[in-house]
Amino acid sequence: MYASKRFSYSPMVYEARTLLAALDYNHHKDRPPLLNKNGQKIYRRVFQKKTGRWTVYALKVKKDYSYIPDLQAAILHERLQADKGMPRRRTLRPEDPRRLGLLPKVPPPSIDTILESHVNRGIGAIPTLETDEP
Asked: Where is the composition biased (Basic and acidic residues) (predicted)?
C-alpha cells in the first residue's frame, strides 16, 4: 500500500507514492503463475460477498524488487546533479491554524465533573429502587 487513505500526504509526497505504485504494478503485472511440484498452477478460492459465490484465482510467483537499486541510483544521480538545495522548513506565522493542532479552545473539565454528567446506555435513564421516593 503506497498511498493509504488513513494518512494525509502533501501533494508532492502523494504524487511520488502514486508513481512508485505505478512502477511497482508495471514491473510485476506479467509475473508467471506459481506452479506446484507437478507443474500445475496453484489456485486459491475467495468468497465474493456481493454475488454469494466462490471464485478462484491463480497464485503468482513472489515479487522481485530488482528495479529498486536502479531507481535509487537514478534518484541519487538526479539529486546530485540538481542546482537546487534541499527544501528548508518554513516557520509558521503565529496566527497559522496549524499551530493549534487538535487542542480544543476551552480547558477540559475535571474528571469528576464529566463522571457526574455521564450516563451509560440504559443506566441512569430509569430510576432505581434505592433512589425512588414514595
From this structure: 85-99
